[in-house]
């Protein structure tokens, strides 16, 4: 039986990846940061909270990471933990640098000192491209991050490349474009929209306040993207791969898809609110996934329409239950 350790197992991708690895017969360990309330809702949603082995630890505490490796003895480590919300990275730039940037070094050092034969996956991001000059971004496109999050991720990316080249560690970096699901955090724009569509449809909310709806993103389904992570660690040698759909859509058109699905017009409900504008914006992202297709045999299986419909359906069910059970609506954080 193969053993894997996932940092960020309680996040969107961590939950889908844990499910994928369990289905493949892996023993799955996950590192969970101490919180005052349980963060296991995504693992519970997928029905796997009892199948994974959880170890307490924080990306900023190298001793906890070393201990986790000593206990789990994994063959593969997937580093998904991060302060991953771009908006928050301007309010908490130092936390973001420590967790999302130096945290990668902490886990790589733990691997180097514990068992350098461990295969390592780093969750890199299209946010590293930022203010790009090329119409489509590939592994060869230069980086120009536009947020403290993007800058921290760029450090994580290069330290991964550096440990591969310096210590011969099997370290691969997936440069993933935006991917979403019913398990997406409520602060990200797709989930903010699908949650609002459900609330408006069910008479619980009157409007949806958004920032820059002309921004364009290359959105895919998280369930498809975690397959690419696994494939990267099954190759003969480590490498970097762009994972994307190859299509870009405005936030405005994504809203249209979501509102149309329940028979509403987004223009009747969306209000532009400058508080959701960012100090520096990434206007457009469009990934070229040819290398992942060619070398990994990876393909997207879910269209944007299917994804948004799946998310609206899940939010309609959730909001319906909340109303019956009297649970307070989730707080929507700023962008
Ligand atoms: P989430 O924000 O949903 O999950 C982040 C995870 O990191 C959570 O489990 C969180 O724990 C954990 N975490 C945060 N801080 C710490 C810490 N100090 N120590 C230990 N764990 C911590 O992100 P996603 O699942 O969407 O993304 C996974 C990774 O992929 C992230 O690194 C993200 O930056 C990157 N990425 C994501 C993309 C996307 O579109 N989703 C695209 C490209 C890259 P808790 O639940 O307790 O908060
Ligand atoms: P992003 O995702 O910043 O691309 O990072 P997000 O969904 O937060 O924003 C996408 C675009 O929508 C615009 N926008 C708004 N965004 C939010 N959150 N809230 C709003 O009200 C709003 N209005 C407009 C944003 O300005 C932006 O242009 C995600 C994260 O998962 C990162 O961790 C990951 O690395 C990248 O995707 C790839």
Automatic annotation (TrEMBL):
Instruction: Keyword check for Lyase, yes or no.
Output: yes
Name all NAD(P)-binding domain ranges. 5-311
Which keywords are on file for this protein? Lyase, NADP
Q: Which GO terms describe its molecular function?
A: GDP-mannose 4,6-dehydratase activity
Its EC top class is lyase
InterPro entries, sorted: GDP_Man_deHydtase (IPR006368), NAD(P)-bd_dom (IPR016040), NAD(P)-bd_dom_sf (IPR036291)
Cofactors needed by this protein, per the record, are: NADP(+)
Q: Which Pfam families match?
A: GDP_Man_Dehyd
Q: Which reactions does this protein catalyse?
A: GDP-alpha-D-mannose = GDP-4-dehydro-alpha-D-rhamnose + H2O
Keyword Glycoprotein attached: no
Task: Tell me which EC number(s) this protein carries.
Answer: 4.2.1.47
Check the record and name the NCBIfam families matching this protein: gmd
HAMAP family attached to this UniProt entry: GDP_Man_dehydratase (MF_00955)
PANTHER family, A to Z: GDP-MANNOSE 4,6 DEHYDRATASE, GDP-MANNOSE 4,6-DEHYDRATASE
Q: Could you tell me what this protein does?
A: Catalyzes the conversion of GDP-D-mannose to GDP-4-dehydro-6-deoxy-D-mannose.
**Family of this protein:** Belongs to the NAD(P)-dependent epimerase/dehydratase family. GDP-mannose 4,6-dehydratase subfamily.
Indicate what this protein is called per its UniProt record: GDP-mannose 4,6-dehydratase
Q: What is the species of this protein?
A: Paenibacillus gyeongsangnamensis
* Protein encoded by which gene: gmd
